[in-house]
Design a protein that fits this description.
The structure is a homodimer. Chain A is built from 17 helices and 28 strands. By secondary structure, the first copy, chain A, is an alpha/beta fold.
């Protein structure tokens, strides 16, 4: 006998910060109708994913069940929530997508890159309006975050109400977008909430979160004292911050110039959708060039040290015809995300060489986080008073700490990482299945699996260098001439001071000279033997066993 | 007419934190007798130096003048000051090396790896004893740091006295090793100091530095409350901290076990040289296995998340037969050096999955820095009251800020980065020459230049993948059979859904079919053309232009 059930299955975002993708389902086991909340990306690095363009959740499980997928709901327009829409839309059977106006605007840009029309995303209104999607009714519940129109989702099913917070903070004055409205949230929670699926990012921050409004006066002070050009970077999607910076510049009598595609795109979207009503007049980069630097403020992309963004380009030299100079000020109105420290520090040092004064995030005055801190999470638990708390949007350590926090409030909780399917139907979450999940890489124009071995081979070449061995054999399996080597990424000479290539070729020739016909006649054996000769010989010479490609050519009679 | 002069030339450590190497010289221009202060390493990363083992300063300038090198003086035993001694000793003509007992002990280990005997390093006593080295008299002036027996150097020349601080903090109670003695330093400075060449690491830390003694009570509280096994990591060379941790464990009734080679090596050296007199009894890893976990404390290497160190191995599973378990505590009594965040966070998450409570450095309670903060630097300037301050041991931003700080105290200063030779003879530092400097990589067993292109090729293969093209031509320059491809680190299929290798081979075959004899007869032309075919064809298929090795075999008649 089967009964219907309400399930939760994170495919990304639970056990990591990035590439969010959360499945909910309702129905008989194995036949649940499904919705997906968010479809984001995460970013590659040289250490684990060299050459990769974008990392997305492996959605194979959902793809195999796309006939049961009712819709995708997108909570807000950050890349880790919206970034994979375009890449995975077709594989999911071109499902309906719902988002509020600003998010929809950005999302349509993502789909447009794949030639998918604007109608693919339906603009949804805020709660109390709801969207019907199979057995679900889903409403967008406004909440404050570091991007306009972030929303929690009210997910109603026959098994009760789930609130999925999305990313949030409790900001009563976020400047742009809606404030957190505790009365509204309490109202929505009043009928009883089965599960609060809740952002965990800042669970280790012990002080109460600060409002976006607190940074304005500090920034204003800074800008008013600056002598040369004033340049500031922040997350382009933090429209409120960009506005605060621009207004501080305007008040100090500076012309404002936005630099970097993302910066312009976000402000455009905010204006188009009516989220942003009054923004200081901006000048184009071309016009900026003729404005005296003490009257100019640049707002630029690249707060994380991204090599191609405006900040890094200014650090290396010119960008859009503008160059930093002694006496200018550069402000990071942002925090450095762990892993990006080296890139950011490189920029700071480059500016230092140019005589530019850099103000980073160490004082805490010029940036506030977009996520709820520990006391704020506690407050959210209290406002919603759910049956259970499911921590999401966090690495394992965040989920674990958040579950502990829920426990302190005597709320049932669980650490559910990617691939753990929970049944939320009972009084406490219950693990019902482990689903295979992982990462899909966008690699050039191709989607590959993180474990396909392709990137592993690239990492090995980076660590060990590469040798190509070529050997030609005649019709009688006798070597024709001597084998030769081409090397890439290896020292030219080693221990013997002779050319590495010559040493390798001589050892190969000696080996071929004494190889028996069984080896010479068998491609696999010969390849393996030649590889071993080169790896051992290189190890002797240069203390390193390179990756080897063996090319055996046999002349046919 | 030439006059004698006193010069300063950083070959490493000025414009970066790491691989310290500072040259001083006295004599006629171009004929100065030289001494070298420190010879350290810095560590590679996947981003810029994949596969590299160790990074050292390029000492070519000094090697070419090794007949003028009187001696090397080593301030303390951190890797960034002592780590390159063994690798570069012979190239510098096996010079005399001086260090105090603990540093000499560690240094001898480095030289021993190259079969160089212990006598290569002369153990020096502390100030007021001095070592004569050509025109210089050099004394080791004790100062506190995060390793025993760190010393500033008093460098006397006919042009006056220079004080080279080495790494330091102003700690009046460092627990192990000598305290900062302001009277001693003032005394030494009394005759007048020409230049204070001074550590800049913590110039951005605005509060006064804290003493090593402040962490003991906090650690003790933590250990006394722990339930399961208690594991702590710190920099192995921080002998005082290791002792503090061990004593806290002993007081809580725990047996102490040191894990990781560096941890045991440092404690051994400290005991051998009399620096460390009383250290709690330790048990071997084998014996530790039979001790109840609530009675056990492990002190382990790997505070920076190093993959092969004890911490990372415990995070992945067993180390020395011991496994972490639910309820254990793991303490980072260390700070995370920028760039190491991802590795450290990976360990924290792995422990979280094991149910281990991790205490990191975010509270600031369980670690203090070994470097002088801004107010301490100011105090050092005042104590020494030099004619000029030369900031060293810092990235450009640190040197610049430190020079500003000196300026606030009305001291002459300059930002001198690697390769800038200063004449210190006058009343203010003067740049007299720019010397070519850079980085030398220990790559396997070979020393290569950072700009040789070897590592660049490895990075390119990691980013772009690699294709080997093989083509055989007969005696008439006609293709013999079809060309073929081997790929590494590339997707198997792309846009056309056909095998990438087959698509490339077909395009190559088509090209060869229509190639003219001028191309076919010329190796360079043919190679370039084949490479272009593959790169364009791959770009079409997979959106990526791979690195290409072309092997052309010509059969001779």
């Amino acid at each position: 006998m089967t009964t219907e059930r309400l399930i939760y299955l994170p495919l990304g975002g639970a056990g990591e910060i990035g590439m969010n993708a959360y499945v909910y389902g309702y129905g008989a086991p194995g036949a649940e109708r499904l919705i997906l909340v968010d479809l984001g990306v995460t970013f590659p690095d040289m250490e684990t994913s060299p050459g990769v363009d974008i990392i997305m959740p492996d959605i194979t499980w959902l793809e195999e069940r796309k006939d049961r997928l009712e819709a995708i709901f997108v909570t807000h327009a950050h890349e880790d929530h919206v970034g994979a829409l375009g890449h995975l839309y077709e594989r999911l059977g071109a499902p309906k997508i719902y988002a509020r106006a600003f998010t929809a605007n950005i999302g349509r840009g993502k789909l447009g890159e794949y030639g998918i029309g604007d109608q693919a995303i339906t603009t949804a209104s805020a709660w109390p309006e709801v969207v019907e999607a199979g057995p679900f009714k889903v409403g967008f519940l406004p909440i404050s975050h570091s991007i306009p129109e972030s929303s929690g989702l009210v997910i109603d099913s026959p098994e009760g109400r789930v609130i999925h917070t999305g990313d949030f903070k409790l900001d009563l004055d976020p400047l742009v977008g809606e404030a957190f409205d505790p009365d509204l949230w309490r109202d929505v929670a009043k009928p009883g909430v089965k599960a609060l699926v809740c952002d965990s990012t800042n669970v280790f921050s012990h002080h109460e979160g600060r409002s976006e409004i607190t940074v304005g006066p500090e920034i204003e002070k800074l800008v008013s004292q600056a002598k040369g050009m004033f340049v500031a970077t922040t997350f382009a999607s933090n429209v409120a911050r960009v506005k605060t910076l621009a207004e501080a510049g305007e008040r100090a009598g500076r012309s404002i110039c936005l630099m970097g595609r993302a910066m312009r795109r976000m402000i455009e979207a905010a204006i188009e959708t009516g989220v942003l009503k009054d923004f200081p007049k901006v000048v184009s980069p071309e016009d900026a060039q003729s404005i005296p630097r003490e009257n100019l403020m640049l707002l630029v992309t690249g707060s994380q040290g991204e090599r191609r963004a405006a900040s890094a380009q200014l650090a290396r030299g010119k960008y859009n015809g503008i160059k930093m100079a002694e006496g200018d000020t550069f402000l990071f109105s942002s925090k450095t995300i762990p892993g990006n420290e080296k890139g950011v520090i490189a920029i700071i040092n480059a500016f230092s060489e140019q005589g530019v004064d850099v103000i980073d995030d160490s004082s805490g005055l010029y940036h506030v986080s977009g996520h709820a801190n520990r006391p704020d999470l506690k407050r959210m638990h209290e406002v919603v008073a759910p049956q259970m708390v499911i921590p999401m949007h966090g690495e394992h350590r965040h989920l674990r700490e958040h579950a502990k926090l829920a426990g302190e409030g005597r709320l049932s909780s669980i650490i559910a990482v990617n691939g753990m399917m929970l049944n939320l139907s009972g009084n406490a979450p219950e693990v019902v299945e482990y689903v295979e999940t992982g990462r899909t890489y966008l690699d050039g124009s191709v989607q590959i699996g993180a474990l396909d071995g392709i990137v592993r081979d690239r990492i090995r070449m980076a660590l060990n260098g590469h040798v190509t061995i070529t050997a030609i054999l005649d019709e009688e399996d006798e070597p024709l001439g001597e084998p030769w080597c081409d090397v890439k990424g290896l020292p030219e000479t080693g221990r013997s001071r002779a050319s590495l290539v010559e040493v390798l070729e001589e050892d190969l020739a000696q080996f071929l000279g004494r190889a028996d016909s069984r080896t010479l006649g068998n491609d696999d054996k010969l390849e393996e033997a030649l590889r071993r000769v080169v790896r051992n010989s290189a190890n002797e010479e240069i203390g390193r066993k390179p990756e080897v490609t063996v090319v055996i050519s046999r002349l046919s009679a």
